[in-house]
Structures are given as C-alpha cells and as structure tokens.
Amino acid sequence: MKKQILCIGAGYVGGPTMAVIADRCPDYVVTVVDINEQRIAAWNSDQLPIYEPGLDEIVFRCRGKNLFYSTDIPNGIRNADIIFVSVNTPTKTFGAGEGHAANLQFVEKTARSILEYSQSDKIIVEKSTLPVRTAQTIQRILHSNNKGLKFQVVSNPEFLAEGTAISDLNNPDRVLIGGMETEEGRQAVEEIISIYANWVPREKIITTNLWSSELTKLVSNAMLAQRISSVNSISALCEKTEANVNEVAEAAGLDSRIGPKFLRASLGFGGSCFKKDILNLVYLCRYYNLPEVADYWESVVKINDYQATRFVRNILQAMFNTVADKRIAILGFAFKANTGDTRESPAISVCKQLLEEHAALAIYDPKAMENAKLDLANEKGNIEFCSSAEEAVRGAHGIVIATEWQEFTQLDYEALFRTMQKPAFIFDGRNILPHKKLFEIGFDVYSIGQKPLTHFQGIVV
Ligand code: UDX
After folding, report:
1. pTM for this one?
2. Mutation test of ligand 1: which of 250, 269, 279 has the most ligand atoms closer than 8 Å to its C-beta?
C-alpha cells in the first residue's frame, strides 16, 4: 500500500521538495495543499508559480500520477500518514519581539487544523525554519486532543538554496532529521529516513535530538551570512587601501580550514532566510539573557545594511554628489541569479535610497519584474520597468549591476556605451564584469572592494 504524504504550504520550499520526493519515491502519494487558490491553480497549470531550473520537468512528469496539488486541506489531513509543515514564518511586525521573533501564527493554525481534521495517528514534520522549541508548541496543541490520536513531531529542516533547489534536493550535503528520544520518536525518525533513503546515501542522513535539529537550521544560515558580512566588511577596507577583495578572498579561502565558498563580496546578501533566521537567533539569545551573543550575531545584519548604504554612497560620490534626475539603469532585481524571488533583495534598498536622491530608475531583471513592481509599488519617484537591459541602459548616466545574472556578462557593452550619457558609469555590485575591458571602452568602473577605474586624472574616490 502506498503511503500518503501531505505538505501544507506550496511555496519555495514545499513546492520543489515535494516534487523531488514524488519523483524519487514512487511508493508514496504526495499531495501539496495551500490556502492560496491562485497558487494551487498555478501548480496545476503549465506556468508554475515559481521559477527553479529543472522543476517544470519533474512536476510535469509526476503530476497526476503520485503528485497532486489541492486546496482541500481537511481532506488532505484526513488521508495523510505523514504531514510536512512548510508554511511561512515571517518576522513579527507587531507586539513582543517585533522585528526579530518569528510570527508563528500560521504554524499554530496549521497545528490546530491537523488536530481538527485528523482521524488517525500521524507524523508531523517541521519543514519551515522555526525557532528552537517550536516542536514543543506543536506537540502541546496536538496532544490536547480527546480523540485518542497519537502524533509524533519530527524536525527536518530544508537546506536548499533558491536557483539550485532541484540539484540541492537531489544531491544534498546532508539530510537532518531530529526527533524525540523515545521509542515512538525513534520510529517516527525512521519513517522519515526511509523516504530520503530512496535516493540519499545513508551516511548523509544525520539524526539528532529535536532541539539540535531546529537550532542547526538557524546556525547554518547565520554562519553562511556571517561569511558574506565578513568579506563585505573587508571590501570596505580594500577600497581604502588598494587591496583587492577578490584576491584577498581567494587567497584566504585557499586555506582549507576557511574554504572558498560564500566569500564573494557583493552589495549585500538577500533572500527570505538569512536576515530572518539571524534575527530569530538574536531574539532567542536575548530571551535567554545572552545579550553579548545576541549583539555578536546582530552585527552580521548590520554590516549587511551598511554594505548597501555604502554602495549607494559610492555611487553618489562618483557621480559628482548628485543623481537627481539622472537615469540609472538597474540591471538585476532578484536577490540572486536564477530566481525571480526578490525577498530582502539588496536591490530594493539600493533603489529606495537612489529614489530618495531623486534618481530616475530604469529597472530590468530577466525573471523578477513582477516582484520588482510590487516591491516598489509604494515608492514615489521616477521608475521605469523595462523589458531588456538595452532599453534600461539607453540614455542612462550609470549602470548598476544588482544581481549576478549570467546574461549581464554577455551584453554588448560597446554598443551600450554608445547609447549612454557621458561620462558613463558602471557600478558592479556583484563583481561579475570584466572591469578592465569596460574601462578601455570608456566607462568609469566602480566595483566592490577594488580600486575604481576612472578616466579622471588625479581624482580618487
Ligand atoms: C539560503 C541558504 O543557502 C540555504 O541553505 C537555506 O536553506 C536558505 O537560505 P538562499 O537564500 O536561497 O539560501 O540563497 P543563497 O545562495 O544562500 O544566497 C543568499 C544571498 O547571499 C544572495 O543574495 C546571494 O547573492 C548572496 N551571496 C551569496 C553573496 O553575496 N556572496 C556569496 O559569496 C554568496
């Protein structure tokens, strides 16, 4: 008999994860539910609601066979043996812990729905990133039933990164499963192991206690973000000293104890996880009266905000201290390449700051235009949303590279240069362009953590 898996929440984590589970585990029927009818309709259509390389292929292969999308949450809960909870946990915007703590109202509502509609024992898997000890809250709600039902709560955090979700899911560095240290808890963990064991080598499936698993997710994201803030802080120093941050990062990263990854200086990190999870960690530390530890991690976020502000300050200084009424082409709006997601994208902060300086923005991103329009909907000022890089750049004083899309490295910069106002500036917020070549074309080139290449003699910015 096939096991029934339900996933509550059809977003960036639930969507791709369930597609891969359905693909790899023909013995399971996977149903993904969400309260958002539009999103479910999109999962059932040819135009999936999220862009992720390789996702369409898998969904089209499995949908209707052992992968289903529905808004019928009660029925989904009734039929399920295993329920993955993958709802969003945004940072609280009100009340206690505002701006730091996670808003758990969707998680709690989900737990109450599970209780209301269940007619049999189930395993509940926390997939959303949650503050440590949330499992306890879920357990308490579930155990308040008088139906005689048994629920086991398991933590199985997701480490996939957007843009590489399918390959991350197919070849994970590790799968982490945390459970209660009781006989029933161990059995529940075994059930979840047997799902992943369909394609993940057994030695990569790690089990811990519930609380270690919950905390590991926050710590992993905090440490990754910390590396970026570390190298970004050094980029500021490089700009003052003529050291080159790319060279420093590469040379430091060759020490195998440091390693080369996540040391790419940029205008800052974005995405739905890093800031939220660090602030969550900070809140947790404050809650447990560890102010020094809280301040330490909070500084990772502060340096990130500083980096975007510093980037805009450099733009202003380079462009003779005013960008008022100057057209600036913003190339890239997504928080990173290969996604249309713009949550916490540094491009948002850069655009807002440039608008405050009365710049005229011409924005182009290959996948994120709809989100860009939503993100800037309440901004006053001159904003044009363009359908190509060429259109955005035409007539501009400056180009800002805000996302490391491959296509921006392949533009015909000689042709672009001819269509721009002079002097023509490029601000490479991702250090992806051939700076020397651009300088030779005639651009004044500014990047992160490297000496600017300008045609003005004797002026150092
Ligand atoms: C992250 C974690 O990587 C993933 O494990 C977790 O499950 C969710 O959060 P994601 O937010 O999708 O994934 O993107 P990631 O690739 O980690 O990039 C985050 C941000 O950091 C992006 O804005 C990216 O451009 C930036 N970044 C990344 C840098 O600025 N420099 C780097 O060296 C690496």
Report:
1. 0.93
2. 269
